[in-house]
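Weekly modeling sync, notes
Attendees: S.R. (lead), two postdocs, one rotation student

Agenda item 3: backlog of single-chain predictions. S.R. asked that every request posted to the team notebook include the full sequence so nobody has to chase files. The rotation student volunteered to paste the first one in as an example of the format we agreed on. Action items at the bottom.

Example entry:
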Amino acid sequence: MVRQRSRGRHAGVVALTVLFAGGVAGCSNSTAPGNRPTEARIRIEGSTPVPLRLVVSTDFFEEADQLNGGAFQVLRSADTIQVTDLPYDQRVPLTTLGSVVVDLANPSVEPAQVRLRVDLDGGQDPYDQSALMSEGGALRYVFAFIQRVF
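Predicted structure, as returned to the notebook:
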């Protein structure tokens, strides 16, 4: 496993690249004040003959996509991990914002059969997706904690 820390503009480019790469994405948010998660557990199972790229960020903001509608995430900083051995299990402490982006990608031409599961400790439904990822394939999970202030 290789870990790198990305900051600033490069991390945002990664987010944009993944957004348009055609991966399977999940998105969730929560508004109940007592549901702010403090930790994310990331698990990857399956088999892969090649290293996979895992990008995890708890420091990001969302921008409106004026051309296509919707939104995309701009990562201020992120950990980039090369995952070579499965199963993989990591716990990530979340910032006081309680939000996280998890992106698993296959940069190789050789396919990988994987299952990505992200569990949050705030009572949110888990993200649980399986895929046969070919080159450029990705699984992406975004959780943004939203608390209404009245």
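Discussion: group reviewed the output briefly. The chain has one helix and ten strands.
Action items: rotation student to repeat for the remaining queue; S.R. to check formatting next week.
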